[in-house]
Amino acid sequence: EAQVTQNPRYLITVTGKKLTVTCSQNMNHEYMSWYRQDPGLGLRQIYYSMNVEVTDKGDVPEGYKVSRKEKRNFPLILESPSPNQTSLYFCASSRDRAPKNTGELFFGEGSRLTVL
Amino acid sequence: AQSVTQLDSQVPVFEEAPVELRCNYSSSVSVYLFWYVQYPNQGLQLLLKYLSGSTLVKGINGFEAEFNKSQTSFHLRKPSVHISDTAEYFCAVRVQTGANNLFFGTGTRLTVIP
Question: Which residues neighbour A70 within 8 Å (Cβ) at sequence distance 6 or greater?
Answer without folding.
Answer: A52
